[in-house]
């Protein structure tokens, strides 16, 4: 391993138990050292995902251990490589990178800290024109957007798309990926975000507080859902013949399984597809970077918040409307 003189300790937002954001403390802890195949990254920005919020709280499955395995949350990071472990081929100190570190096990996550170790396979080079904050906003939300948009096959001009939760992380990226392909895009979110949503490309917007898009008689070729807050049959009437409903997530796991089960017979009976999109980490990040470099995509950032305010930033995603991605700068 090659390692320049670096401080032996670092600041990190860390917890020893499950609970609300108050269980997180900023502490000075030992800086990690990259192992074989890993690089050490000085984190310049990390975005907050719904998944971070979920991991904060005690799991409901009885088999899961009581002390959290992931003590430092934060999967989506952007920063500069400052040291490399043995066998690292693709990066060297000084390279700017970003990626999703949401692998399970004691070594995953860790982005809400000044330094984190990542496998080189979890990172791609950050485009020179992209800020660290923009780069941190892309990994999970961007790749869920790519993978969700393709759930019904390639996009084509004239395709009609509805994104439920259009003003959040996936929606603000998804619309920017779909518009250049000639897709007509409707976004559902609260009214306070509609101006921002129109600005980044949504053709039509619906306020979820005053209108139920499954009851207004309009139909779409593709529905991309980040909320999954209805029974599957409610979406069927909002799909055109041969259309696809794709969910990337929602607050209740059982609703996602219902979608998957419904999809097993729906295609045969109604000709409409229902898909549960499982994130494939770090598969499409290079593609997102190409779209950024082409000028198609500018991530919408809420923040950045300093690490000292990261607890409050975590509360933001629960308590108030978020515009795009919440970003922390350690
Ligand atoms: N499939 C996988 O493998 C995988 C992996 C990681 C994450 N995920 C999931 O993927 C999803 C990520 O979505 P995201 O990053 O876009 O989330 P997000 O940033 O939280 O955006 C969700 C948006 O939906 C809006 N919203 C709230 N209630 C709504 C309603 N009733 N109808 C329509 N919109 C509503 C929110 O606005 P407000 O400000 O009003 O709340 C917010 O703008 C999460 O559900 C996460 O759990 C899935």
Described by the principal axes of the CA atoms, the overall outline is globular
Q: How far is it from the N-terminal to the C-terminal residue, by CA?
A: 25 Å
User: Can you count the beta strands?
Assistant: 15
Class inferred from helices and paired strands? alpha/beta
What is the typical, i.e. mean, pLDDT? 93
Radius of gyration: 20 Å
Order of helices and strands: EEEHEEEEHHEHEHEEHEHEHEHE
Low confidence ranges:
none
Described by strand count, sense and barrel closure, the largest sheet is: 7 strands, mixed
Helix content: 10-25%
Enumerate how many helices there are, as a single number.
9
Q: What are the bound molecules?
A: NADP nicotinamide-adenine-dinucleotide phosphate
**Percent in strands:** 25-35%
Task: Tell me what the structure shows.
The chain is 25% helix and 27% strand. The chain has 330 residues and is an alpha/beta fold. The strands form three sheets. Strands 3, 4, 5, 6, 7, 14 and 15 form a seven-stranded mixed β-sheet that branches. Helix 6 links the parallel strand 11 (220-225) and strand 12. Helix 3 crosses helix 4. 46% of the residues are buried. The structure holds NADP nicotinamide-adenine-dinucleotide phosphate. The site of NADP nicotinamide-adenine-dinucleotide phosphate has 28 residues, from helix 1, helix 3, helix 4 and strand 9.
């Amino acid at each position: 391993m090659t390692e320049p003189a670096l401080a032996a300790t670092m600041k990190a937002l860390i917890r020893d138990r499950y609970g609300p954001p108050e269980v997180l403390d900023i502490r000075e802890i030992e800086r990690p050292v990259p192992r074989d195949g890993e690089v050490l990254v000085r984190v310049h920005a990390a975005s907050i995902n719904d998944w971070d919020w979920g991991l904060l709280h005690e799991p409901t499955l009885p088999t899961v251990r009581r002390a959290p395995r992931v003590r430092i949350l934060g999967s989506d990071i952007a920063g500069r490589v400052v040291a490399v472990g043995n066998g690292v081929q693709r990066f060297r100190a000084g390279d700017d990178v970003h990626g999703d570190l949401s692998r399970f096990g004691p070594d995953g996550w860790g982005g809400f800290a000044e330094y984190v170790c990542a496998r080189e396979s979890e990172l791609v080079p950050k485009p020179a024109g992209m800020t660290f904050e923009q780069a941190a906003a892309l990994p999970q939300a961007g790749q869920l957007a790519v993978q969700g948009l393709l759930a019904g096959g390639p996009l084509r001009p004239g395709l009609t798309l509805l994104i439920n939760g259009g003003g959040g992380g996936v929606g603000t990226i998804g619309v920017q990926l779909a518009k250049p392909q000639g897709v007509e895009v409707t976004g559902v979110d609260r009214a306070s975000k509609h101006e921002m949503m129109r600005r980044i490309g949504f053709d039509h917007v619906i306020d979820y507080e005053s209108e139920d898009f499954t009851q207004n008689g309009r139909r779409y070729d593709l529905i991309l859902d980040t909320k999954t807050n209805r029974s599957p049959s409610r979406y069927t009437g909002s799909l055109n013949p041969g259309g696809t409903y794709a969910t990337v997530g929602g607050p209740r796991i059982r609703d996602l399984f219902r979608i998957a089960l419904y999809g097993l017979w729906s295609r045969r009976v109604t000709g409409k597809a229902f898909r549960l999109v499982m994130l494939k980490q770090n598969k499409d990040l290079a593609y997102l970077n190409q779209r950024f470099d082409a000028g198609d995509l500018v991530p919408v950032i809420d923040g950045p918040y300093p690490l000292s305010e990261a607890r409050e930033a975590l509360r933001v995603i629960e308590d108030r409307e978020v515009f795009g991605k919440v970003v922390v700068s350690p």
